[in-house]
Design brief:
This protein is an all-alpha fold and 298 residues long. 71% of the residues lie in helices and 0% in strands.
Length: 298
């Protein structure tokens, strides 16, 4: 289980070090300046002495060593990022947390790679129902604002959902309202509609926008991949609360064509009564599509 203390430690330890010259580069620069100063002193470094030849070779070896280390470090970072995202896709949460811990325990120099890893860490927190932890991660990303626009949008949507989960309803509603007023492409609008639908279900206003059900379904189907199942399931809950059982059963079946009923009810406990009331589609697990990296990031 990911605790708030651990998340704070990983956020802090993964921050890139400031400045263009740091660590080994700073040491090498200082050594080069010292070598230059000593070279100017013929008493210390005679023109034909052994040290005059040897010290430049040492500097060259140091430069080569630093380059090798830098390449190795980049490959290591890429490996951990790939492993953590793959583990999140497969919902292998202990593996994902292990990879993210190894990645984030040291400075991550690339802001987008760090932001992507922190979003994956938030997904791990949500899988363990630690919504206060995911909220803190999203807040940090939005406060720091070093991620790319898509990552910042993902953080805002995630923050709205986390606030609903932690009972900060007023703040959540304000954030969701601002998101809904923005002019966004369909791929981003779909996530906001899913969040808005979740708000309606949790706050007892699920019947208010049933006239937009087909529009939302089309948006989910076009842009969310297998995650559209979450949207269909929430639409089923909305129709069920309105007493339209036939439509509720239809949407629940569509949802369970994409995702197992157990996963839907684990992600949204509000769906447990719907899951008990309506039959799920019977599909061998291997025939369901796995989420793509873009779906996980969203």
């Amino acid at each position: 289980m990911l605790t708030l203390e651990t998340a704070e430690q990983l956020i802090l330890s993964s921050k890139p070090r400031g400045g263009l010259i740091r660590g080994p580069m700073f040491i090498l620069l200082g050594f080069s300046v010292l070598l230059g100063a000593l070279s100017a002193d013929t008493q210390f470094l005679p023109p034909n002495g052994v040290l005059t030849w040897l010290l430049p070779q040492v500097v060259l070896l140091a430069v080569a060593g630093m380059m090798v280390y830098s390449v190795w470090r980049q490959k290591e970072l890429a490996h951990y990022v790939q492993e953590s995202i793959e583990a999140v896709q497969l919902k292998q949460w202990p593996r994902a947390l292990n990879a993210l811990h190894r990645l984030l325990r040291r400075p991550v120099p690339h802001p987008t790679a760090r932001a992507e890893s922190l979003l994956a860490l938030a997904a791990v927190a949500e899988a363990g129902d630690s919504f206060d932890v995911s909220q803190r991660i999203y807040e940090h990303l939005l406060e720091e604002r070093l991620a790319d626009p898509i990552q910042l949008h993902t953080a805002r949507v995630g923050l709205g959902a986390a606030m609903l989960r932690t009972g900060q309803t007023t703040d959540a509603v304000g954030l969701i309202d601002r998101l809904e007023r923005e002019e966004l492409p369909g791929s981003l609008r779909a996530h906001i509609e899913l969040l808005g639908l979740f708000r309606e279900v949790t706050m007892g206003h699920a019947t208010d926008r049933l006239d937009r059900a087909e529009e939302r379904r089309a948006l989910f189907r076009r842009h969310l991949g297998s995650r559209a199942g979450y949207g269909y399931a929430l639409l089923a809950a909305a129709f069920d609360s309105a007493g339209q059982t036939e439509q509720a059963a239809r949407y629940w079946r569509a949802a369970t064509m994409l995702l197992p009923a157990s996963e839907l009810t684990h992600r949204f406990s509000e769906l447990e009564s719907v899951g008990r009331k309506y039959p799920a589609a019977v599909i061998p697990p291997g025939l369901r599509n796995s989420p793509s990296p873009a779906e996980v990031a969203g």
